[in-house]
From TrEMBL:
Keywords: Hydrolase, Metal-binding, Protein biosynthesis
UniProt xrefs under Pfam families: Pep_deformylase
HAMAP family per UniProt: Pep_deformylase
Catalytic activity: N-terminal N-formyl-L-methionyl-[peptide] + H2O = N-terminal L-methionyl-[peptide] + formate
EC numbers on record: 3.5.1.88
One GO MF term attached to the UniProt entry: peptide deformylase activity
Primary role: Removes the formyl group from the N-terminal Met of newly synthesized proteins.
Coiled-coil features, chain-numbered ranges: none
NCBIfam families: PRK00150.1-3 (NF001159)
GO biological process assignments: translation
Protein family membership: Belongs to the polypeptide deformylase family.
Protein name: Peptide deformylase
GO cellular component: mitochondrion
Amino acid sequence: MVSLLSNISFIQARRLSYKSIISWYAGLVKSKPHEAPFNHIIQIGDPTLRTTSQEIPRHLIKSDEVKFLIKRMEKVMQKYNCVGLAAPQLGIPFRLFLIQFSEKQLNYYKPQEREVKEMQVVPLKVIINPRVEVTDYTKLTFVESCESVRGFHAEVPRYRGIKLTALDDKESAFEMNVVGWPARIIQHEVDHLNGKMYTDVMRRTTFACSCWQVVNERGGKVELPYGAD
Ligand SMILES: [Zn+2]
């Protein structure tokens, strides 16, 4: 029910101006703390994940609403231990995402895998209104997952190298030239801003439940939590 109400609010908001969207969002935060931006990650099927998100006007980047949204995203990202999170995944269709690939997350992989996938540590970065240019058209295919398709994974082809141009949370413009794993994370997150999911571009026959063996071991008695509290 909560999700239905939020979707109706969202559809109504789509017809309004940026100013109206900000006040609509501010209204949600003050009067309906249980609505977007959520404390959980929304799941595939929610119409917000199929929306083309809107740019954040530069003068609103330091607004209380956007600051609040970024803080909430940082909190949820930590809670779910994910390497990227886009604003629409919390129910807010803005062109904003966060990436982070920590030393701890890097160490989860074996050295050989790190090398093949060109993994490297990426400090937490706020990315607003991104533009992506492909710098290396080589397609690399590796297993990928998404917290909005919780409990599954698949092989997904992505370009090896990209140049990212964007604004950060201080309104400063920056550029990043990246290859390998960080380029994959960024392509995944930018897709979210365009209403695209990895399931649209995955190798379909590789789509798998991430715990199918456990399902067998426990005779089907496995629960998948959608919140990470
Ligand atoms: Zn995702």
